[in-house]
Amino acid sequence: MNIYDSNRIYDLTSRIGFKKTYVKEEADCFILNTCHIREKATEKVYDEIGRIKKDFKKKKKPLVIVSGCVAQAESEEIMKREPYVDILIGPQSYHKISDLILSYSRKKQKINETEFDVVNKFDELEKVSNLQNKISSYLTIQEGCDKFCHFCVVPYTRGPEYSAYNFSKNNKNFTLSSLIRELNNIKNLKRIRYVTSHPKDMTEDLINCHKDCEKLMPIIHLPIQSGSDKILTLMNRKHNRNFYLSAIKKLKNVNKDIKISSDFIIGYPGETEKDFEETLDLIQKIGFVNSYSFIFSPRPGTPAAEKKLNNLSKSKKRLIKLQDILEKLQLENNKNYLKQYCEVLIENKLDNQEKYFGRTKYMTPVIFDSNNCNPGELINVKITSFNQNNLFGFHKTNKVQAA
Ligand code: SF4
Fold first, then answer.
1. Strand (E) positions, 135-275?
2. Alpha carbon 54 to chain centroid, angstroms
3. 43 pLDDT exceeds 50?
4. Which of 161, 197, 353, 396 makes the best surface tag, with the fewest CB within 10 Å?
């Protein structure tokens, strides 16, 4: 979501003549696009501003803009604590960024634009051409969320759920699955992926896309957070373990190649050893790949932030144990590719080397030798070695036809 937003911000500002620079000292505007999901997000913003201040101590002050969820959640605090910030823009308002910059340069008055304005944003973004499109591109299928999991800030910082594609016309409902089916018909499009935030969004029509749409990749990021029904209830996740398992069973019934990645929160308030063991049991049952795990950290303003914290050193031990299991699963998964040919979409050539970088259908990074290939092509790579995160191999000239 943040990569998509950053790219759109760049597209919008380039309309008023802004250009990207990789030389920090050259910049006359810094836009810090922030995410509030991760721990210490706000402190990172202040640290970054501190570095800019230091670098520009003897130079003309650059324009400093903070956009995204941290701006939304902490706008008043940032305005008070950091006068170096000129403009604050919430995630629902960044389509106005060029106008706000122009207005600031005329009036030199600080701007705090953090009101929710969801529909307007999508309407405006439709008119912006996508300049960042290289090998792959993002489409926002949903903004905000109505599910109110007790640990999460998204419903507060991004507002209620809104989709640009979910609508009815002539008594027909158009949903994410309709969009995927349309995309699947585009001749030159080679691969389609989507990310859902919640198992309840895994509807029958979406599951069936995995049967019919050959360009839809067989990996699904489906966050579970915990394998314990007690903890799922405390988290207000509105689904239980069985619901999750049955969604995966349905997916595998329509496409046996599907693999699942997930997110896990360890040490959620109230988590006992038994709850944790149930999470480990679920991991072994499903055999997740490419998953993420974190120790619970409270987000101000959420119900979970009011709860008594678990013992941190116990949570750390649990996290190490869980990550160890996830790592082993990942290694076993990668080992299966050894001596096999696997289909790779080439993303780029590595600097100063005859090596290329690409991804398998399952998003696993592949670094390979080749003397005859181009970014954007689908090719077969023979895998000769692997580690936990990457596959390594070589490519001869046997190109795969786009599906
Ligand atoms: S589903 Fe829950 S965790 Fe995901 S964005 Fe919504 S509230 Fe947050």
1. 167-169, 172-174, 219-221, 259-261, 263-266
2. 31
3. yes
4. 353
Per DSSP, the chain holds a count of helices (H) and strands (E) of 13, 15
Residue 152's identity, in one-letter code, is C
Does the beta carbon of 382 lie inside 6 Å of ligand 1?
no
What is the distance between the alpha carbons of residues 287 and 181, in angstroms, rounded to a whole number?
Answer: 28
Which pLDDT score, from 0 to 100, does residue 261 have? 96
Give pLDDT tens digits for 249-261.
999 999 999 999 9
Tell me the CA–centroid distance for residue 151 and ligand 1, in Å. 8
Q: Which of 198, 243, 294 to mutate to test the pocket of ligand 1 (most atoms within 8 A of CB)?
A: 198
Q: What is the largest CA-CA distance in the chain?
A: 64
Residue 197 CA to ligand 1 center (angstroms) comes to: 6
DSSP letters for 248-272? HHHHHHH-TT-EEE-EEEES-TT--
269: tokens are 């308030």
Query: By the 8 A CB rule, do 373 and 360 touch?
Result: no
Amino acid at 300: P
Beta strands in 23-127 (DSSP E): 29-34, 63-68, 87-89, 111-113
- The pLDDT, as a whole number, for residue 167 is 79
Look up the pTM and report it: 0.83
319-349 tens-digit pLDDT: 999 999 999 999 999 999 999 999 999 999 9
Supply 295's token pair: 């120790």
Question: Are 271 and 232 contacting, i.e. CB atoms less than 8 angstroms apart?
Answer: no
